[in-house]
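Issue: ligand-bound run for zinc ion - logging full I/O for the record.

Environment: standard queue, default settings, no custom constraints.

Inputs:
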Amino acid sequence: MNLDNIRGMKFLDSHIHMTSRTTDDYEAMSKAGVVAIIEPSFWLGQPRTEVGSFKDYFSSLVGWERFRASQFGIHHYCTIGLNSKEANNEALAEQVMEILPMYVCKEGVVGVGEIGYDDQTPAEDKYFRAQLELAKEVNLPVQIHTPHRDKRAGTSRSMDVVEEHGIPPHMVVIDHNNEETVKEVLDRGFWAAFTIYPKTKMGKERMVEVLKKYGPERIIVDSSADWGVSDPLSVPKTASLMLSHGIPKEHVEQVCYQNPLEVYKQSGQIDENDWLNPQGVDQRELYNGNSVLRGQEPMVNK
Ligand SMILES: [Zn+2]
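Outputs:
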């Protein structure tokens, strides 16, 4: 895909799981204009069996992965939470809940997430609510994963529960929307994020139509790229397609950059100045003695 028409634009991908991506992805994202990313905590495909696995995962999100992104000129932030799938292992979920308060207050954590429903079980409901209370306590935005099965009802229910817990909609991003859910999410005052997957679910072309119909207010485009079939360039590619369909550049910037910045800025942990005055990249730097290089010539442009 030719991305010439987005040259010079800035993007913020507010949902991408970089721990499962490569340095090639970081390079391509940086080249395409991605200046900052938010990595939500989620499940890893293989279910975790010990709370220690969660600890190490959360630590890597605020530590190594943040460093790794910086080595390619990308600013990395994350959201911390117990995902809905693993909420179903209640014995483990209890232990994870105990360590969450320690991680949500770390530097670079811009929200509690991604939390919500998968199969809409009682255990999922219990830990979704407990984490909404945590978000309220520490005054952080909430990033909500909506179920892929029974999506419409699951999305409505997620918003009902948020309202029940007294969290204002401007603090909450409802993700994985589609044409069926977007209207209600916007009408109720929440941020409506769309995950753009290649070939399936919500695609780029469909996103263009959604934007034409609803405009850019409170809409967010993200990639949700992970270890599954997905595309870390979904945000710049969708932006390019939007422009080629005549959507005004300001609207494209709003949904691919400004809106996610607005909502997560409420954490006090992310600011445009973080990348508007870039510190540059120095690949000679180490993190706990480790480098991203394997004998290559380090890129240095400080
Ligand atoms: Zn995700």
